[in-house]
Design a protein that fits this description.
282 residues; alpha/beta; SH3 type barrels; Rossmann fold; 7-stranded mixed sheet; 4-stranded parallel sheet
């Protein structure tokens, strides 16, 4: 392959290279210049604000790379670009993904003091995807907690009160669980009554709130005891599962299958709607 046109100048001054910009497509064969990895594009995901392309070599092994400079296509240096954007499909009947009537031209309100707390980033992304339009119209912000072990202390730091409410969505909130004990203890904080609502779904992880049929399966795979749940799920699907990046890309793939509220289990839908009502009804 012709490497003589590729050099440090190309990378440090991309505006002057004149490299062709090529939108990534499944099936194209690329070479990553730095590592020498050659493979076919099997998927493109967006994670952490970056577009990631997965290249599968002739032995069936896969590596992921960030889009941009540093690729060869048929021996030619290119700048690899994200796929052409598609116009989002509007939910039937002029409704939002949550099923609410869409109000054309409505602007997001200034964020209120009240908040929705969820356990982690994936929970926040799922709530935003389905209820984002509604929450922006109400001025309600969703924030990830990254765990609920110190929930009472977090509530104390927030200082809830009239006009400053908290709606908290907890994973695996079932009778007798650690999470149920934490929630009960958190509600003993003075001022929590009437200003804090803690609800939850029965799933170990919010991934399970996606209806299996949306993913083309009958039910979620069983994960062996002692194995990290997300790792076990991705392994069962036959997807990359050994790194944090693999987990993130796997989640983006699952999240991409969700289009509307109808793709989620009722046990999550009801709890999110309950929280939104709590924060928006005077």
């Amino acid at each position: 392959m012709a490497f003589d046109t590729w050099g440090p100048t190309d990378l440090s001054a991309p505006a002057k290279t004149g490299l062709p910009e090529v939108a990534v497509q499944r099936g194209m064969v690329l070479e990553d210049v730095q590592s020498g990895w050659v493979g076919e594009v099997t998927r493109v995901e967006k994670s952490g604000g970056m577009h990631i392309v997965s290249l599968e070599d002739r032995r069936g092994k896969t590596k992921s790379f960030q889009l941009g400079y540093g690729f060869l296509l048929e021996g030619q240096a290119i700048r690899l670009m994200p796929p052409a954007a598609k116009a989002p499909a509007s939910p039937a009947g002029g409704r939002t993904a949550s099923g609410s009537v869409r109000v054309e031209g409505q602007r997001a309100q200034v964020a209120k003091a009240s908040r929705i707390w969820v356990e982690g980033k994936h929970d926040a992304e799922l709530v935003e995807k389905v209820w984002g339009d509604d929450l922006r119209a109400e001025g309600i912000v969703v924030e990830p907690l990254h765990g609920v072990d110190d929930l009472k202390a977090a509530i104390a730091a927030f200082k809830p009160g009239p006009g400053r409410r908290l709606g908290i969505l907890v994973d695996h909130l079932v009778a007798g669980s650690k999470e149920s004990r934490i929630a009960a203890e958190a509600m003993t904080f003075p001022g929590a009554t009437g200003n804090v609502l803690i609800v939850g779904h029965p799933y170990v992880d919010v991934w399970q709130a996606i209806r299996p049929k949306v993913l083309g399966i009958e039910q979620w795979p069983s994960v062996p005891r002692g194995m990290d749940w997300k790792t076990g799920i991705l392994k069962a699907f036959g997807w990359p599962h050994t790194t944090a990046e693999d987990i993130g890309l796997g989640w983006q793939r699952l999240l991409g299958a969700v289009r509307t509220y109808a793709d989620l289990e009722a046990s999550l839908l009801g709890r999110v709607e309950e929280v939104i009502d709590f924060l928006t009804v005077p």
